[in-house]
Write a structure and sequence with these properties.
The chain has 140 residues and is α+β, with helices and mostly antiparallel strands. It contains 5 helices and 6 strands; from the N terminus they run H-H-H-H-E-E-E-E-H-E-E. The strands form 2 sheets. Strands 1-2-6-5 form a 4-stranded antiparallel β-sheet, covered by helices on one side. Helix 3 packs across helix 4. The longest helix is centred in the N-terminal third of the chain and has 12 residues. It starts with 7 loop residues before the first helix and ends with a strand.
Length: 140
């Protein structure tokens, strides 16, 4: 089949961002005749040409209907770059040695890459959670 249907009200909804609309369209592509679909995160990410961590971020934020946000703050102080990223989450992350990890396959590499890169730049990073808010602070 070359075509699939997508509910236009999703695309008219100003609260649904670009990735949310793309993920919804990809899910529609895999929809079965009975109205269900179960493509893997890897399949959805590959089809949408974005990372699995991007998929996870937007899907978990979409599930938090009333309180979704992603906040980025960058500033320079005393010759150092300070980066702070905060967003909400649905499921409590697991930390090992101060870094959030995932039990799920092909997930959790983003935080490991951040920690590795910051270390190579002789900086510091801290991951934390509080009341369903995930926080990343970086000093380089």
């Amino acid at each position: 089949m070359r075509y699939f249907l997508v509910d236009k009200t999703v695309f008219d909804n100003k609260k649904v961002g670009m990735y949310g609309k793309l993920i919804y369209a990809i899910l529609c592509k895999f929809l079965n005749a009975d109205g269900t679909c179960f493509p893997s995160r890897k399949t959805i990410s590959k089809c949408g040409n974005f990372s699995i961590s991007t998929y996870n971020k937007y899907v978990s934020v979409m599930l938090l209907e009333n309180e979704r946000f992603i906040e980025l703050n960058m500033q320079e102080k005393c010759g150092k770059l300070l980066i702070s990223i905060e967003n909400n989450y649905l499921n409590e992350p697991i930390f090992v040695d101060g870094i959030p990890i995932s039990k799920e396959k092909d997930h959790g590499f983003g935080t490991q890459s951040i920690a590795y890169t910051v270390e190579k730049l002789h900086g510091n990073c801290q991951f934390s959670t509080h009341q369903h808010h995930f926080k990343l602070r970086v000093v380089i």
